[in-house]
Amino acid sequence: MRVEILGAERRRRWGDEKKLDIVMSVGIAGATVTEVAERHDVTRQQIYTSRRELRRKGLLLPSAGPMFLPVDMPVAQSAPRMGKGTDRLSALVELQLCCGRNLRFDREIDTATLTRLIKAVEAA
Hints:
The protein is mainly alpha-helical. The chain has five helices and two strands. Helix content is 39%, strand content 8%.
């Protein structure tokens, strides 16, 4: 049996800088690993492998997961009651997650519950 390989060689050798660029583009504007892989004509596994390799070399920090930052929000003046539920809406906080989803929750929520909620939404 005779086999011939026609066309250009598919193996590419990218440096750490190019790999880091590809890995860091995951999540920007909600881009998934699959979308980034298609855009750069690589497999998803190559992105995961590059991510592990870059972390091992110390070029990519491991993700720390959800992080809470202090926010100073001025208290808005209450508008006259326009109907049932108006005050309830003003007590909600909206959080945009890196996965492109938004969470709305009561500002009285405890951090442990909010952490579990963020992890559940990001894993879905």
